[in-house]
């Protein structure tokens, strides 16, 4: 009898745990906003306001009891849900229907998120080994250009992807040489590489393609069509026809998680990024590990770029990555240097891009606002307001052997 | 040459290592017999760690040869040292705080499933097996940052055992340990020795060397002076070999002449970083011309007490008076201006700016005052000439006013800190672990200087983890345990009695006396 009572109390305690309350707050806030959107389209502010209020309350309750990160997310979402809910009920149903097409939004989110996923996971390898890689942007850009160049000249998207990856690896090797061998400042070198990539691709682009731009008929990375599921409600439109690289990014996600956290290789990479001297004293080569990690990051970032040019868009123009490498870095930090965290952040940022792309029909200024979202969220994550993202201990510090 | 039981497991012949401008090891010979503990004794900078780093493959020797089991070998990297059965526990632990004990132990020698995936279960089993065999009591799943320093050291030993080491090098292993943890370590080393492990024990503490070692090799300025068996060795004899002259191990001091109260602490409570009460209503008085020692095991609120007394941490309640003025919760600068001198317990983090020159470090408190500055402008010439005088007075060796603090040895760095604090002519001097990590020569200097300051009429509050130091310097001894003063002794108290009070043993008695 006593045992049973104890168990019951225990379960009850688990349910009213700050973490679960915060999650409930997040769900409730999101629901409040969801009710006023198509297809439900409730035309009353009662739902978003009441549920948003509940979400805020749950969030504050959780924050005061130690669950800071999720609690603040609940609070933020609750407020956003009230505000956006009121906005949505005040706009016409026609407008809402044109912006909020869930399946299209989700498919678009995946397309925008994929380049970020590749680059962010690439960045994870480099930064977990202790080398800051703000050159992701440049590596992505050169991946995008050399992929389209090789694909067009050699008439093969496979060779295009390989050429892009090789270009990324080349830039990464330069980054690694300066940062590891010469122990230069990693931020300065990263910035220099970004400019190098921008200048190099810009020059070659004009030199090769002139004012006409890349031709329309370049070989592109194919889409994977799944006729079997194309009729399924919601899932069909989202997953039925996605680029091969998007599916590969899911594989990459799982593989990179396994490598980083379930294999000796990952343990060694992390040890080099946390305490290189400790790794050295047990016989791990710090330099070799860092070289390999940085080059891996270059290859992955360049694959993200290759997807962008010969998968997603089908053309190249100067500076076409337009800061995506930095957003990927933001996703990496927001995701606390973990693959699934970074992927979740990439999806969130991808969603805000997808929304920003559709919103101009409704409001141009709101669209711009959504494009700033990744940076705002990253600032919040790094500043530690909602539970700090803690980087690898030795990040940015060159290692000198004794 | 065939291997006989008499063949040393390890022999170094004529090891020489030069650094720019320094001959760190000068043709040093050293041998280690199977199953012995061989201590390497010397002052800081005598070349002990250099010699061991050469042996462990971290440095490359300029001359000399290494023989393992009578066979000449070349060791270019730690990996090769590990392959030869050599394990090293570094002075600063080589552990990764965010990883678990098991992960740290298996790093670079990981058991795997199918050769690909980490087999942490097997790692955990092996760790448990090893820690059972040596009675280590370590949770393999705990993160290294969450375990005590003593346990971290055991993880380091396990790391070496896991890699099959039969030669274990321990570099200053007791420097970071409490007396109890050091005793436990010695127990562990004796067990390892029985199991056939050969151990090199690096230290500059005479007493522990005499307690644990079978043979003792003394290094001085890079040269081997002598190897002596423990039988017949004495502290005074070893100190002479180490320093090259007779050393005063006992502090010579006259009876104190206490005057008025200069530091008055009343019912002070202080919170630690986790917002728990670390100092629980402590009251104490320090008079002009006396040294009051606070003894205690590390982590019983000493750090928080020091911080609160020097204005680095707010007091939760209570009052601190310096020379009659209430300075509770005033800024650190207010404390200094009221005549407080502070020799911090961690000179590298709180005592010196390592990247600054000695002159800048010496001017760190009084840079705003004449002659260091005038009308808001620093006067580098005056600062340097003033610093030169201080460096001379305090016998700081190894650099002039413009040398970076980081390039000095620990003893000389400490002299710089003491010079700065004492030259401000404070009324109250708080000395926290003033001889941590110093060698006998430097300890002698610091102790003599503290007694001199007392005789000048300052009130000295000494906080130390070293029982010897508290006993030999203090005129009154207070014992701190779990944030409270649990006992007060005169300096003729026995070490045992003091030790019992430090572990909370005397508290009930003290309470009984207080209520009676």
Describe it.
The complex is a heterodimer of chains A (402) and B (516). Chain A has 402 residues and is mostly helical. Chain A is built from 17 helices and two strands. Chain A folds into two domains: 2-99, no CATH class; 102-383, ABC transporter involved in vitamin B12 uptake, BtuC, CATH 1.10.3470. Chain A has a two-stranded antiparallel sheet. In chain A, helix 7 (136-154) crosses helix 15 (324-334) and helix 11 packs across helix 12. The longest helix of chain A has 28 residues, at 286-313. With 516 residues, chain B is α/β, with parallel strands linked by helices. Chain B has two domains: 10-243, P-loop containing nucleotide triphosphate hydrolases (Rossmann fold, 3-Layer(aba) Sandwich); 261-339 and 426-515, 3-Layer(aba) Sandwich (Rossmann fold). Helix content of chain B is 33%, strand content 26%. In chain B, the strands form six sheets. In chain B, strands 6-9-10-3-11-12 form a six-stranded mixed sheet, sandwiched between helices. In chain B, strands 18-21-22-15-23-24 form a six-stranded mixed sheet. In chain B, strands 2-1-4-5 form a four-stranded antiparallel sheet, with helices on one face. The longest helix of chain B is centred in the middle third of the chain and has 16 residues, at 179-194. The model of chain B is unreliable at 510-516 (pLDDT under 50). The A-B interface holds A 258, 262-264, 266-268, 270-271, 274-275, 277-284, 393, 402 and B 53, 56, 58-59, 77-79, 82, 88, 90, 93-99, 103, 107-110, 112, 116-118, 159, 163.
């Amino acid at each position: 009898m006593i045992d049973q009572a104890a168990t019951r109390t225990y379960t009850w305690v688990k349910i009213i745990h700050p973490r679960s309350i915060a999650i409930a707050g997040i769900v409730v806030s999101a629901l409040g906003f969801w009710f006023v959107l198509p297809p439900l389209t409730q035309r009353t502010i009662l739902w978003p306001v009441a549920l948003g209020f509940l979400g805020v309350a749950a969030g504050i309750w959780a924050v005061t009891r130690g669950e800071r990160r999720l609690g603040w997310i609940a609070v933020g979402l609750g407020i956003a849900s009230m505000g956006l809910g009121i906005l949505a009920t005040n706009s016409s149903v026609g407008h809402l229907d044109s912006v909020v097409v869930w399946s299209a939004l989700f498919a678009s989110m995946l397309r925008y998120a994929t380049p970020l996923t590749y680059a962010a996971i690439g960045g994870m390898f480099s930064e977990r080994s202790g080398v800051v890689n703000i050159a992701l942007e440049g590596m992505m850009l050169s991946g995008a250009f050399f992929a389209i160049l090789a694909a067009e000249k050699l008439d093969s998207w496979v060779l295009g992807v390989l050429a892009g990856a090789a270009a990324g690896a080349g830039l990464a090797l330069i980054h690694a040489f300066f940062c590891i061998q010469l122990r230069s400042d990693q931020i300065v070198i990263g910035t220099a590489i970004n400019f190098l990539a921008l200048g190099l691709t810009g020059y070659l682009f004009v030199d090769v393609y002139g004012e006409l731009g890349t031709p329309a008929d370049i070989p592109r990375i194919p889409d994977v069509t799944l006729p079997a599921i194309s009729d399924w409600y919601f899932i069909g439109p989202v997953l039925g026809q996605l680029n091969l690289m998007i599916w590969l990014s899911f594989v990459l996600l799982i593989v990179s998680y396994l490598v980083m956290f379930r294999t000796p290789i990952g343990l060694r990479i992390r040890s080099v990024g946390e305490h290189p001297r400790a790794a050295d004293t047990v016989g791990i080569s710090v330099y070799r590990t860092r070289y390999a990690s940085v080059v891996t990051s270059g290859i992955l970032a360049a694959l993200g770029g290759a997807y962008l040019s010969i998968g997603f868009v089908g053309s190249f123009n100067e500076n076409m990555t337009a800061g995506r490498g930095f957003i990927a870095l933001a996703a990496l930090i927001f995701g606390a240097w973990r693959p699934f965290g970074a992927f979740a952040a990439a999806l969130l940022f991808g969603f805000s891009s997808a929304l920003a792309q559709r919103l101009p029909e409704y409001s141009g200024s709101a669209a711009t606002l959504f494009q700033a979202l990744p940076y705002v969220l990253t600032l919040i994550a790094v500043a530690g307001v909602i539970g700090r993202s803690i980087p690898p201990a030795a990040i940015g510090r060159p290692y000198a052997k004794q | 040459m065939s291997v006989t039981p008499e063949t040393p497991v390890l022999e170094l012949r004529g090891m020489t290592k030069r650094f720019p401008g320094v001959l760190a090891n000068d043709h040093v010979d050293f041998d280690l017999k199977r199953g012995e503990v061989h201590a390497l004794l010397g002052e800081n900078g005598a070349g002990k760690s250099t010699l061991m780093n050469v042996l462990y493959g971290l440095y490359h020797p300029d001359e000399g040869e290494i023989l393992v089991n009578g066979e000449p070998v070349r060791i270019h990297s730690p990996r090769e040292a590990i392959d030869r059965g050599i394990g090293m526990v570094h002075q600063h632990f080589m552990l990764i705080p965010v990883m678990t004990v098991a992960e740290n132990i298996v790093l670079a020698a990981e058991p795997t499933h199918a050769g690909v995936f980490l087999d942490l279960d097997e790692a955990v089993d092996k760790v448990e097996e090893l820690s059972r065999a040596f009675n280590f009591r370590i949770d393999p799943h705990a993160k290294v940052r969450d375990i005590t320093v003593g346990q971290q050291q055991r993880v380091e030993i396990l790391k070496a055992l896991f890699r099959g080491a039969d030669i274990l090098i321990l570099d200053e292993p007791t420097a970071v340990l409490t007396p109890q943890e050091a005793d436990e370590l010695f127990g562990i080393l004796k067990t390892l020795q029985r199991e056939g492990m050969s151990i090199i024990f690096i230290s500059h503490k005479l007493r522990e060397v005499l307690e644990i070692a079978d043979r003792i090799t003394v290094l001085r300025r890079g040269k081997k002076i002598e190897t002596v068996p423990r039988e017949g060795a004495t502290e005074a004899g070893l100190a002479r070999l180490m320093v090259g002259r007779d050393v005063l191990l006992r502090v010579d001091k006259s009876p104190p002449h206490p005057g008025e109260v200069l530091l008055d602490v009343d019912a002070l409570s202080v919170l630690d970083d986790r917002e728990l009460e670390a100092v629980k209503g402590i009251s104490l008085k320090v008079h002009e011309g006396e040294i009051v020692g606070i003894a205690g095991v590390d982590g019983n609120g000493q750090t928080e007490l020091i911080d609160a007394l020097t204005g680095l941490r707010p007091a939760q309640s209570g009052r601190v008076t310096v020379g009659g003025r209430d300075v509770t919760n005033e800024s650190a600068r207010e404390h200094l201006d009221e005549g407080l001198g502070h020799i911090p317990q961690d000179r590298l983090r709180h005592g010196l700016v390592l990247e600054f020159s000695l002159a800048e470090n010496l001017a760190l408190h009084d840079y705003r005052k004449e002659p260091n500055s005038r009308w808001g402008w620093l006067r580098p010439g005056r600062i340097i000439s003033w610093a030169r005088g201080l460096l001379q007075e305090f016998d700081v060796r190894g650099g002039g006013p413009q040398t970076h603090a980081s390039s000095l040895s620990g003893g000389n760095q400490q002299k710089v800190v003491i010079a700065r604090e004492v030259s401000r002519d404070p009324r109250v001097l708080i000395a926290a672990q003033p001889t941590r990590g110093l060698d006998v020569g430097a300890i002698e200097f610091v102790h003599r200087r503290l007694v001199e300051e007392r005789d000048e009429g300052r009130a000295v509050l000494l906080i130390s983890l070293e029982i010897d130091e508290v006993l030999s310097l203090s005129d009154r001894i207070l014992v701190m345990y779990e944030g409270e003063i649990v006992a007060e002794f005169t300096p003729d108290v026995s070490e045992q009695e003091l030790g019992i009070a430090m572990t909370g043993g005397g508290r009930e008695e003290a309470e009984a006396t207080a209520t009676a």
